[in-house]
Amino acid sequence: MSVKVFLAICCSFFCSVAVSVRADLPEYCGPQNYAYTPLRKDPRGEFTLKQVHVVIRHGDRTRAGASPCWDNDTAEWDCLLSSASIPTIKHDTHDIEVARVYRDAYMAGRNIIHGDCGLGHLTFKGYKQEEMNGENLRKAYVDTGFLSSNYSVHEDFFRTDDMSRTRQSAQALGIGLFPPPSSSSGKAQVVDIHVMDKLYDDIEPNANLCPKLEQYEKEFFASDMWKKHYAETTAPLLAEVQKALGLKYTLTIDGLLHVNDCLMTHLCHGFAIPSSVTQDLLDRIATELTYTSYSTFSYPSIQDYSRVGIGFLIAEMWQAMQDVIAGERFEKFYLYSGHDHTVMPFLHAFNASDYKWSPYASMVQLELLQVTNATNVDYAVRLLYHGQERRIPYCSASPCSLAEFSTYVKTIIPQDPVADCQVTKPEIMIGPRPPRLGRNQVLF
Ligand SMILES: *[C@@H]1O[C@H](CO)[C@@H](O)[C@H](O)[C@H]1NC(C)=O
Ligand SMILES: *[C@@H]1O[C@H](CO)[C@@H](O)[C@H](O)[C@H]1NC(C)=O
Ligand SMILES: *[C@@H]1O[C@H](CO)[C@@H](O)[C@H](O)[C@H]1NC(C)=O
Ligand SMILES: *[C@@H]1O[C@H](CO)[C@@H](O)[C@H](O)[C@H]1NC(C)=O
């Protein structure tokens, strides 16, 4: 504490570049509250929930990129949140006696960012955001009797990619959704969080899984549309940002993603940003990055891009829904804890995005509903973002009838992954990787 106070005092004397905290946090920092839209009466019949797929972006985190943000960056990160675990042997045991856990302790002063936090780690704030998501899901699905009040390996499936912030986000959400029962046996509950090798994980669009994705992104960045936009908007903006921050390297779109991440992580935590970065400049950076992302997500079309990208994940959800309809599967609750590049392409695949950057802890729900009336049993699918119902534009209504949903979903999932993913323009594959794909392991 005293260190922080000292720095703050120092700062007011020496850091002419620094400005004080803005009162209202950007939307990017995460939802402050959340209201779930309950099912309404529908003339088509009685709606009953059968299965739900929840897709989240991890909560608030430290900055993801290793490069320094700007000169005289005064942010000092204090990581309240840590992680503790033990090695376990059996896969089929869901309660164990725990006599000891091992805690990760990041050594202060030994990391890239000042303080005792790792790069891209979930913060305590991010943890609370996901716990709140879990509590809201509990109100929506446990208090209504859809899910039993305890975690059950037969009902609930948690999945994340193999990264610390997404794993901890799943854990935090799990605490809110299924608060651990006080144990009389002295045993601790074991909740499975499913992961896979990162190389071929489909929780984000992944060019290792589907090389055609890289072709499309390269084609987009070689298109006349992009070149025109780059010359008119991107290049002048990069020059302006480079000047405003006094950067000694040439800023690229990749670099702008990093700079934006620096600005957002600072703003969300009340750390000073250079006063040369005005609200107007912040807004234009955000507009440029959302434009670039959503343009790639729409190239060559929303559906084509999805089929080589996030469509792999959607296909898994669609399979699970069909298994429930066929009476062959019984998991009711699925969590996918991912990134902005999970949530944004996912919503966009359904053509239901708002063309904004998905905030920390943003959440999508895809509910499979049974529709029963006097003459018929049918199914429907409802899409919610931040608890608000969204009509899938392809569908005539929300919830979307199974017939319409099934027709549309087939246009956004790979039908024949080997053929769909085949590179058809090998000449374009030579040359630098497109911006986001170039960031390699540093996920935002
Ligand atoms: C950073 O701080 C140093 C020393 O206080 C100062 O000389 C320098 O001009 C500052 N850099 C910027 C970009 O403000
Ligand atoms: C939940 O688990 C606790 C402890 O294992 C048990 O005492 C309680 O009865 C369970 N509740 C339900 C609804 O199954
Ligand atoms: C029952 O549902 C079916 C299909 O959803 C519909 O065609 C039919 O009109 C409905 N019947 C009544 C009585 O609402
Ligand atoms: C997306 O939805 C809009 C309406 O919101 C519609 O005009 C447009 O044709 C749709 N695009 C695609 C590719 O489905």
TrEMBL record:
CDD domains linked to this entry: HP_HAP_like
Keywords associated with the record: Signal
InterPro entries according to UniProt: His_Pase_clade-2, His_PPase_superfam, Histidine_acid_phosphatase
Source domain of life: Eukaryota
Signal peptide feature range: 1-23
Similarity field: Belongs to the histidine acid phosphatase family.
Annotated PANTHER family: ACID PHOSPHATASE-RELATED, LYSOPHOSPHATIDIC ACID PHOSPHATASE TYPE 6
Name this polypeptide is given: Acid phosphatase
Species the sequence originates in: Porites lobata
